[in-house]
């Protein structure tokens, strides 16, 4: 019985990895001056187009802020970096990020972890962000 449960668990993990196209680990965000740098590691990339980066201010409405093309089939792990340089809002703004894992046939899954980052924004950039917002 224990062997059957273990076998089913292993099969479940393999099916999840095959469907997702990638196993993402260590997704994190680092605040910077006028930017947020996102980093993650991926393993077992298979039939993968890439990673869509989405951002939210309230965890309800999400916007695409970038896309990172996958390296393809990987042996071991691949490390990825994305810089969000569109952080124009006030300094007290908190940004939430998530990864959308996109396969070559455009099916997708979301990496389950949402990360939260607060960026440092210069006063000039903050003013420019306010001016842009007036004309949207």
Task: Provide a descriptive summary of the structure in words.
With 136 residues, the protein is of the alpha+beta class. It has one domain: Immunoglobulin-like, CATH 2.60.40. 23% of the residues lie in helices and 44% in strands. The chain is globular, with a radius of gyration of 18 Å. The chain starts with a helix and ends with a helix.
The portion of residues forming beta strands comes to: 35-45%
**CATH H level, superfamily name:** Immunoglobulins
Number of strands: 8
The CATH architecture term is Sandwich
> For the CA atoms, what is the radius of gyration?
18 Å
The major β-sheet equals: 5 strands, antiparallel
Structural class: alpha+beta
Task: Write out key terms for the chains shown.
136 residues; Immunoglobulin-like; 3-stranded antiparallel β-sheet
Quick recap:
This protein is an alpha+beta fold. It is built from 2 helices and 8 strands, in the order αββββββββα.
List the helices and strands and how they pair.
Elements: H1 2-20, E1 23-32, E2 35-43, E3 48-56, E4 63-69, E5 77-84, E6 94-103, E7 108-110, E8 115-118, H2 123-134
Antiparallel strand pairs: 1-2, 2-5, 3-4, 3-6, 6-7, 6-8
